[in-house]
Design brief:
Blueprint (H helix, E strand, L loop, with lengths): L11 H17 L1 H16 L3 H7 L9 H11 L5 H12 L14 E4 L10 E4 L1 H21 L6 E6 L6 E2 L5 E4 H6 L2 H10 L1 E3 L3 H4 L4 H14 L4 E6 L2 H24 L9 H8 L12 H12 L3
Parallel strand pairs: 1-5, 3-6, 3-7
Antiparallel strand pairs: 1-2, 4-5
C-alpha cells in the first residue's frame, strides 16, 4: 500500500507528518495490509509465466482474501535467487514478455555478491524505483521529526556511483545505488524533503572515489553555513572522508580561499561542475567561527 499524499505538493513539515501517519496506520494493521498487498500483486501478475506454472487458470479476483493467502502459500513454493536466475537471464538477454512481472523491467541492479562471492542481477521496475523513493521520504520524515532541519538546507552526502553498462538485451545494469543517484527519483527526493545535496551529479557519478571524496569535502566546506547534516550510504565512507580531510585540509583551504580546484581532480566534467559552483573567498581562513563550525561538523560525528 502506498500513501496517497505522495503525489501532493505540500510543505516539508506537513508532508512529513502525513507520511508518518500513513506508515503508523498501516503498521498497526500489518496482517490485513499484507493480505491486501498480496492480492494486488497477484491480480496484476497472475498471468506472468513464473506464477502461471503454479497458479494455473485460477481466477484471483473471485477468491476471498484470506483464502487467497492460504492458496498462494500452498501452491507457490519458496524461491531463492537461483530459482529465478534463469528467468532473469532471459530478461537480460532481451526477452520482453511477461516473465516475472507485467510491468516491464527498466533496469537490472547488481547485488553486493556477499552470498556466494558473485554479483547477481536483481530486476527493477518503475514500481521498484517508486518504492525506493518512498523509503527515503519516510526516513527523512522521521529524521526531521527528531532533528528538525531548515527548509532549503543542504546535505553533505558522501555518495558514489559506479559505472553502468548495457546487457545483451539492452537493459541498463549497475548497482542499486548507482541507478538511484542517476534517477529522477533522487532529484524528486531532494525536492520533497527540501534538502539538497552539496555535490552535483558529475561528482557523485565520477567513477573515481578519491576524486569524488575530495570534491564532496570541498563543497561541504564551501556550503558549510548551509549544511544541516552529513550522511552516507555506508558508514565506512564517512570514516574514509575523515581520513582524507586530515591529510588534505591545507589543500582544501587553499581551494576555498582562491576559488580553485586541486590538480588531483583531473576529470574534465568534474572539474567544470565544481568550478562552476565555487568562487574565491580570500577571507575564508580568517573567519574563525566558520572554520570552527566546519571542523565541529567533522569531529562531531567521529
Amino acid at each position: 500500500m502506498e500513501p496517497a499524499e505522495c503525489t501532493n505538493n505540500q510543505s516539508n513539515g506537513n508532508y512529513g507528518e502525513d507520511i508518518i501517519g500513513w506508515f503508523e496506520d498501516v503498521t498497526e494493521k500489518a496482517g490485513l495490509v499484507q493480505t491486501q498487498t498480496l492480492r494486488k500483486i497477484l491480480e496484476q501478475n497472475c498471468s506472468v509465466e513464473y506464477l502461471k506454472q503454479w497458479l494455473g487458470d485460477i481466477k484471483i479476483q473471485e477468491v476471498d482474501g484470506f483464502v487467497l493467502e492460504s492458496l498462494y502459500t500452498s501452491l507457490v513454493p519458496l524461491a531463492s535467487h537461483a530459482d529465478l536466475e534463469p528467468y532473469i537471464h532471459r530478461i537480460a538477454n532481451g526477452d520482453t514478455g511477461p516473465i516475472l512481472t507485467q510491468q516491464p523491467m527498466t533496469t537490472l541492479s547488481l547485488s553486493s555478491g556477499t552470498t556466494d562471492g558473485r554479483q547477481k542481477y536483481v530486476p527493477f521496475t518503475h514500481h521498484s524505483a517508486q518504492t525506493t523513493l518512498q523509503i527515503f521520504r519516510l526516513a527523512a520524515a522521521y529524521r526531521s521529526r527528531v532533528y528538525p532541519t531548515r527548509e532549503g538546507g543542504r546535505i553533505l552526502e558522501f555518495i558514489y556511483s559506479s559505472r553502468q553498462f548495457k546487457t545483451k538485451g539492452g537493459l541498463t545494469a549497475g548497482t542499486a545505488t548507482t541507478h538511484y543517484y542517476a534517477s529522477q527519483e533522487f532529484k524528486i527526493k531532494q525536492e520533497k524533503t527540501k534538502s539538497f545535496t552539496c555535490s552535483p551529479e558529475e561528482v557523485i557519478s565520477s567513477g573515481d572515489c578519491k576524486q569524488s571524496t575530495y570534491c564532496h569535502l570541498l563543497l561541504g566546506l564551501f556550503f558549510s553555513d548551509q549544511v544541516e547534516f552529513i550522511t552516507s550510504t555506508f558508514a565506512y565512507s564517512i570514516v574514509q572522508a575523515f581520513i582524507t580531510f586530515e591529510e588534505l585540509w591545507k589543500e582544501l583551504c587553499n581551494d576555498i580561499r582562491d576559488g580553485t580546484l586541486s590538480k588531483r581532480i583531473n576529470l574534465p566534467k568534474v572539474r567544470k561542475a565544481v568550478l562552476d559552483i565555487i568562487s574565491p573567498n580570500r577571507h575564508w581562513l580568517q573567519k574563525s567561527k566558520l572554520v570552527a563550525r566546519a571542523w565541529k561538523i567533522w569531529i562531531g560525528l567521529v
